[in-house]
Amino acid sequence: MSHITICARFRPLSSKERRDHGDSVSVQSVDSETFIFKDEKEGDFTFSFDRVFYQGSEQLDVYEFLVQPIVQDAVNAINGTVITYGQTGAGKTYSMEGPSILECDGQKKGLLPRVVDGLFQYIKSSDEATKYTIKLSMVEIYMEKVRDLFDLSKDNIQIKESKVHGIILSGVTEVSILDSTEALHSLSRGIANRAVGETLLQETRTGKLILVDLAGSEKVERTGAEGKLLDEAKTINKSLSALGNVVNALTTLTFSPQGRANHIPYRDSKLTRILQDALGGNSRTALLCCCSASPSNASESLSTLRFGARAKHIKASPRVSHNDSDKHTNKHGTPSPSNDGSCGRILNKLTEKLDIEDINLLEELFILEGIFSYPNSVEDLESTLEDVRQRTISTLQEALGELMLMVEGLKTENKALKFRLAAAERVGVLHKKAPGSTGFPHKCIITVRDNDLYMTQMGDPFGATMIQTGSMSSTQMGP
Fold it and tell me: Taking a C-beta distance cutoff of 8 angstroms, is the pair 141, 186 a contact?
């Protein structure tokens, strides 16, 4: 077992931060792995990571230490994941992409283009007898839906789990690439389609390489968002909170007397579901905590560093992934029937009982659900059923919440109507008792002050008259 590689990176101060605080910073360097973080409110904290990249660090330094070993392992069929984490403006996207994914000088080139170049360099220098196929996919998680950035019509891709392939995105577009230039142009097209940053690069031999640029981790109130943007910020925070819960569960892993591990809430969000293999699973994973060194962002930077300190204790088990083609061969060396063949035989049997339109519909459903594409197993079936159950529970919980709000609103309206009716009846009784009164006044205003009911007749020079006490508060009405 190995631990996740954790690094911290502090970007240079912005012009605004220099105006507000001068050259003051919250970070005091100890060495290349340890630093002291100073927070005016909470005091001083010492953090130690695998490497610390201070303000003068170069993009190449980050790539060579953090990412290059993972790229090399990916070529050797070991899954890899690189995640950038931190508040908005802390340097996550700059670290991942650089100023531009297509055009920038070599010094500022980000991790993503360096990974693409490194991938093809390693393949070029590898054993000529080995044939590689590289496919590229790119998605984002937006409002808890997985969108395909190469095909925007696929805006709700389902996450599935295979015993052989691990976590998979059913039906996601896979672009075959032959060189780094083609890959970078495809990535540039996907970046132009995204709303929020969640990128996935998949290298397919039997392993995969995932690059994840997370959304900002700052608190909702600091975003200044309103309306739809506020809903987006809340969803992002919920997703990142789920990531924090998974990290906490993995770092406090315990086992029951029966040998079962405690529950890891991977299914609480699409983000944690996709990263299930990367977090404590079959992947060599690296986390880059991007921070601002300015005192104005001390609380958010401290939160990011604490997240990294917790994640440092996660253990992973990266291993060489083998192709599943040999799993379709029995002990006599003859191929076993594939899952696609089984589905075909089922459809042929059903043609004896169903119309051709029904058969075509079933075939489309099989393809949509990935039954033709991935091994059929008890684990896959249980995973699919669990996904359906979780989505159903989530939908019911949302509907219940909306109904409860509606009920509370109706209760308030009902209470106001009852009070209005009682007030109207009270006013009518008082005017019937008054000398010379023929009933309810033509025009009046009924007002509540400090739980007392007052009536003011329009044009009355004597003002409001109390007609009832101990009534409902905070309302005003007229006939």
Answer: no
